[in-house]
Write a structure and sequence with these properties.
single chain, alpha/beta, DNA polymerase, domain 1, Rossmann fold, 16 helices, about 40% helix, globular, binds guanosine-5'-triphosphate, binds magnesium ion
Length: about 350
């Protein structure tokens, strides 16, 4: 017999640590509600834990019931930290993922963080997609080697993902290329709508495949080409904002690193300083926790990474290079000659 709302409320407070495996384990969520929630993209307890009551409304449940369900889901994955000391505790669960270059890792305070979004932006050929490929390999490494011993979800919007490139990088690290390729789930996004849909429905795939790296390469290309003209800007920003928030919530729920790439636009009116700026305006700027601007050095395979924004790290620059092997450290002699 389904529980009344009062019963659900008391269950929520009296047994906050009860473990639920699937949606229907949650008191008050029957088969019909579960089906609706799944149609809306909520396949896992983790995704419910980071939902808002309003988002669950279309499933036909009251606000109170939605709040109860969310609270139960949160209790299940211990996500509902509020006090600063508890936030600190949550930060201690953050893990780091190596980029493949020690100096770039140092710039980032020890590698990419889980539970946050890292944005790489820069011109064509600056190495954004190459870094994404490298991260797909690195995340599979054991923790002692800078990995997370986990898999990747790669949302490819420009059709630039190449398994051959993964294989090259894997071989260089003496990893089994076949195994490495198996641990990268690639989803081609054909439009911005499709891109949003893929992420909205990603929670189950993330859980089932032990994914702890979520890449969107590129975040903005579809949005940029589909929303042209000033009158569409507000809608584009609103949709991008929602998309980014979904990404943050997945990253938090699954303790995953989230990586997005972004192109740049020329700023015709700038004579000094940077004449480019990333697409997506304030929405992307404010929801990416760490932003890295990539550009080509004057010669060869070397790239310059500049940390433009981080919640707690100082701005700075570092260099790395892109070779057959992947992302690599630049030798000391080049540094000195720079
Ligand atoms: P857009 O997506 O066009 O905005 O560019 P991006 O920033 O994603 O560039 P990407 O990461 O694709 O970098 C392309 C560059 O990486 C090439 O111009 C090469 O310099 C380098 N690169 C890519 N693959 C290889 C490779 O197999 N070997 C070597 N040595 N370099 C490579
Ligand atoms: Mg690219």
């Amino acid at each position: 017999m389904p529980l009344t709302e009062e019963e659900i409320g008391s269950t929520a407070t009296s047994t906050p640590s009860k473990k639920f495996e699937c949606l229907e384990d949650l008191p008050g969520v029957g088969p019909a509600t579960s089906k609706k929630l799944q149609e809306m993209g909520f396949h896992t307890i983790e995704s419910l834990a980071t939902a808002t009551a309003r988002e669950l409304e279309p499933a036909g449940i009251s606000e109170k019931k939605a709040l109860d369900v969310i609270r139960l889901a949160r209790g299940n994955i211990e996500l509902a930290f509020t006090r600063a000391d508890e936030l600190l505790k949550q930060r201690q669960t953050i893990d780091r993922l190596t980029t493949g270059s020690q100096t770039l890792d140092n710039l980032l305070g020890g590698g990419l963080e889980t539970q946050t979004i890292t944005e790489f932006y820069g011109e064509y050929g600056s190495g954004k997609s190459q870094l994404c490929h490298q991260l797909c390999v690195n995340v599979q490494l054991p923790v002692q080697q800078g990995g997370l011993n986990a898999a990747t979800l790669y949302i490819d919007t420009e059709n630039t993902f190449r398994t051959e490139r993964l294989v090259q990088m894997a071989q260089h690290q003496n990893l089994d290329p076949e195994q490495v390729a198996k641990n990268v789930i690639v989803a081609d996004a054909y439009t911005s709508d499709h891109q949003v849909f893929l992420l909205e429905n990603a929670d189950k795939i993330i859980k089932e495949n032990d994914i702890r790296l979520i890449i969107i390469d590129s975040l903005t290309s579809h949005f940029r080409s589909e929303y042209v003209g000033r009158e569409t800007l507000a809608l584009r920003q609103q949709r991008l904002n929602k998309h980014m928030h979904k990404l943050i919530r997945l990253a938090r729920a699954f303790n995953a690193a989230a990586v997005v790439t972004n192109q740049v636009m020329a700023k015709p009116d700038v004579f000094f300083g940077d004449a480019v700026h990333p697409i997506g305006g304030h929405v992307v700027a404010h929801t990416s926790h760490t932003r890295i601007y990539l550009r080509k050095a004057s010669r060869g395979p070397v790239r310059i990474a500049r940390l433009v924004s981080s919640p707690y790290l100082p701005d700075g620059e570092s260099i790395f290079k892109i070779t057959q092997n992947g992302i690599e450290e630049v030798e000391e002699d080049y540094r000195k000659g720079r």
